[in-house]
Design a protein that fits this description.
globular, six-stranded mixed β-sheet, alpha/beta, about 300 residues, single chain, disordered N terminus
């Protein structure tokens, strides 16, 4: 359900005159950006959204790209970040620590209309590794412990694929390590620093493009990798795309304006939506907490809040 960007701007005059949050007039709006690329590339991808936000709200918009996922989570919990596109596990972590901190409002839509993606296991094409069956004694890389596709889901599903295997170093794999994020995992595998790792992709489109959207697509766009040098060795079940969240403490007019703005971003500026959504997309559509109940329960069972 798409609405025009004009609706978002209609509220800007009211908002600019002093909407209240926590009893204080809003003087700025703060957008957090999860890891996945280096900080400057993340900031560049979101600058257009920041500009539109300043126009719509009539206040300065600031971008924050913390070094890890937890920086965004804690910013939302502490009230120093107002909006972010979280992964499903990062949303679950936020919800488990404070169910009243944020609301999921929008979810990314793939080019085929679906709202899911996959954790993708990959290795160098010249490594001789074609599946997890070839990974005995090999080094394996996760991204961030708060990542859905970079940790939570593969840490659950890979042991199911290899019955009795744990993700502990020296069990089935050699060393199992956290690289720090999706881009770091991709670069580490591409450079041969680790034998294989996991990242996220929509799983649609062409492998040589890094699929239509996701961390591999962003790495291809940035010129970091040639997908012909990599091979897929594992693919998770479908994972729900993470939500765009807004702090519940924000005034209703601000929340409505920002929801309308992001909802209509693809129609207003397809290039901007491409950068924000990490690739090709049909834009965003409404979502609620119910979409993430299974992820919340999986996180609670695996790693707690």
């Amino acid at each position: 359900m798409k609405k025009t960007f004009a609706l978002a701007l209609a509220a800007s005059t009211v908002l600019a005159t002093g909407a209240l949050a926590d009893g204080h007039a809003i003087t700025e709006f703060r957008i957090g950006i999860l890891g996945g690329e280096n900080a400057q590339d993340r900031m560049n991808s979101y600058q257009c959204l920041a500009d539109y936000t300043s126009e719509a709200l009539g206040v300065e918009t600031k971008l924050f790209a913390p070094a890890d996922y937890n920086g965004v989570i804690q910013g939302l919990l502490g009230g120093t970040i107002d909006m972010a596109w979280l992964g499903a596990s990062a949303y679950a972590a936020t919800y488990l620590q404070d169910p009243d901190a944020v609301d999921p409002v929008l979810i990314k839509v793939n080019v085929d209309g679906s709202i899911g993606y996959h954790s993708i296991g990959f290795a160098r094409a010249d490594s001789g590794i074609t599946s997890l069956d070839d990974m005995a004694g090999k080094d394996f890389g996760f991204g961030d412990p708060n990542s859905t596709s970079g940790y939570l889901i593969p840490s659950i599903e890979i042991p199911q694929y290899k019955d009795g295997v744990t993700m502990e170093s020296g069990d089935y794999f050699g060393e199992v390590k956290f690289t720090g994020g999706h881009e770091q995992t991709i670069v580490a595998v591409n450079n041969g620093d680790i034998d294989a790792g996991v990242t996220w992709a929509d799983g649609q489109g062409n492998w040589e493009d890094g699929y239509n959207s996701g961390a591999l697509r962003k790495a291809v766009d940035a010129g970091l990798i040639d997908m012909n040098n990599l091979v897929q060795i594992w693919k998770s079940n479908v994972i729900p795309e993470g939500p765009i969240v807004l702090r519940k403490a924000l005034p209703d007019d601000v929340r409505a304006t920002m929801t309308e703005l992001v909802d209509g971003l693809h129609e207003r500026d397809e290039d901007c939506a491409y950068g924000v959504a990490a690739g090709e997309t049909l834009g965003f559509q409404p979502v609620t907490h119910d979409t993430y109940i299974s992820i919340v329960e999986a996180r609670k069972a695996k790693i707690g809040g």
